[in-house]
Give the backbone structure.
Amino acid sequence: MTRFPPERIKPALWLLVALLVAVLAGATAWQVWSLRESAVRTSEETVERFVSGAEVALNHNMLSIDLLLSGAQDMLQLQPSADVQAESRMLAVVARGNLLVSRVAVVDAQGRVRASSEPSGALQEMSLPTAFLAGVVSSAAQRLYISTPVLSFATTQQVLYFARPLAGRDGQRLAAVAEVPLAKLANVLTQEHEVSGLEIVFEQNDGRRMLALPDLPEAGPIPALRNDVPLPDRAWNMPARISGKPALVVSRQLVYPNLRVSVSLPEDQALERWEYERNMVAAAALVFCAMVLVAAAVTVAGFDRMAQVRKDIADSKALLDQALESMVSGFVLLDAQQRVVHWNRRFIELFPWMRGVIAPGMSFRKVLEQSVVHHLPAGSDAERQQWIALRLAQQREGTGAHEQVLPDGHCIHVLERATPEGGWVITYHDVTDLRRANEEIEHLAFYDPLTGLPNRRLLLDRLGQALVLSQRSGKVGALLFLDLDHFKDLNDTLGHEVGDELLQAVAQRLLANVRVADTVARLGGDEFVVMLSDLSTSTQEAAALAQRIGEKILRGLSEPYVLRGHVHQGAASIGATLFGSSAQSAIELLRQADIAMYQVKARRGNALCFFDPKMQTAINDRAQLEADLRQALITQQLVLHFQPQASLQGEVVGAECLLRWQHPQRGMVPPGQFIAVAEESDLILHIGQWVLHSACSQLARWQDQPQCAHLQLSVNVSARQFRQSDFVHQVIETLQVTGARAHLLTLELTESLVLDNVEDAIDKMHQLRTKGVRFSVDDFGTGYSSLAYLTRLPLHQLKIDQSFVRNLGVRPSDDVIVQTIIGMGRNLDLEVLAEGVETEAQKALLIAHGCDLYQGYLLARPMPVADFEHTLNSGAA
């Protein structure tokens, strides 16, 4: 391509600038003219809209005044006698319906007020012009007359009088007159809208003003508007009706003869905004022209420097090519279209498959397509395309630096930087030796070379982080310090090689018995540490979990080892301590766990001990309670007690089954002491099934007893029991085996249990509902039920929690809650049962609120089945 001669560039540039300035001047003139036309149209539309509104408003209000005066005339003629007070009251009634009129009066030819609508009934004189009054009284035509503005003596306001002739009973000529303040008429005229610069005149055709806004003196004699010579639409360059300035004048004849409204908008007001815009457009055009001239001058100066710059660039390129070829890193330069511009020899050495393939103008995607075959030699087409897409995405996102591992194991550090022109500079540096050295150093610094487990240094670092996270989350963790029993004897008898093999096997068993998030470390010798994080927010539960994991580790380590043909029976001592409940250092925690471990050693090892003796005692008691509870299921120590449920009239309709544990040494164990232990193990499932089976068996036995055959039995269902996949099958099978009637069994569920998985709960409840089983929501009001879900549940009963019943008549808020629950139950057609009723006063309030059933010590305490049946037979309940 031939280069354009520099000596011809400058004249062409100045010609282009001249053409641009001429086009800009024409465009500016056209824009100014367009803006003026728009301003004219806007002004015309504004004035037309305003005068039309004023015309309609004036016509409407004058017609209303005319009708008012006509109505006053008719009402006065209907008056049987000339009673001034009666006539005044009638005028007051007439005037009340028109907010524009301040008063209405009847006057005679001498101007004396015969009757007035004044509230006080006073006959105040009106300031009627004499000629106006005479013209109205003497007129034989029944039409509306309007006076010129007059100052009212009564209100000291400018007013207009509207009048109609009126014939008195004695033949005397009278006039019905309405007084209208100009201030109110001004609101009608402006329609309570303001348009800057408008001149509004309500006038007669002969030019006499009735009302002018704004109230300015006339600049000179303004010619009257003739009714027979209509104004042309949108008449410009006419004198304004008040100031006389050249203006747009629009006038409208009113429905009443000789009256019109005229609106004027002076041209200087109409074009004020246009003049501002015109000046701004002209200024912008001048500024742009100046910028074009400056730019042209700068461009011409730039051409003078371009020749020198070209020479400098050529010299720099030669020097850069020499430097690139001597780089120890590979180098590729891409342009803004991601095409190859330049590369060096080192790039070909790092990627030999690009030799003879790469060329100037080659797209970077083609380079990647050539490389992916060698990066993923066994990859599929989809995997290779994904690799290319990921590589291009890294470049677009500007991640800067990343690494690529070649099939031969070499690690290439890739650094990408954008150029000012939108291209990319990519450098490739072989960092294989550096990475290998770093990995070896890091592994030696943080890991045990024998077992591959974290060493003391890495353990302390992770433990410090775990302490910070525990303080933030509130979750308690545990540290287990483990020492192998009789490890020295093994080393002394079988040698250190066998001892090392045992340590490696112990490391693998420890890893197999903890979670992925936990840390297993070797401190040295036969000492290991297990860090368990995020066990529980409860210290007691965290200790129990740590106890279980520790016992699991002990069982795993006690399994026999086969070490080079020798069978070794392993054992270990574990010291445990908790962290997270208080601020402690990592070193202090290790010391505590170490102390606890030596306590185990002192007891001949192969056990676990907590650093806190009280915690250890509590854990032991909990473990013993769980063992006793398992034995209780086998030896039938569990029994059911029944607490009656009755109507408010005293009729027993059923009972709630309450679990009791009769321990041979502990005595009667309250449910609060063992239910929590059962729920944390699988015992709650066995206990729940036992309670359900016992309750259904009792229902079956009562079928042959007339006094008990109708009774309902309520059974509490735990969350774990209800969430079993075969829960529905268990209930149905129990009913079939025992022969109990399904409609006499009520399963009590808590709000939180149902809302945990609403759809699953609804499905299970519907399946049992079809068999006749009833459902009740226990402790209703203590949770966060959603009414939307509540209406979907196939419920029969709501149970008011005893915490609300206990405060009935004591705390007004609880009275409101109880009333709300009862009302909700009635609206949903559900029974409502109140728990914990202990006094007659509580029962009386429940009766007053409309509760259905109650349960509590006022009726009876929970009792064995024999006592319950005896109570029913004796009628004591």
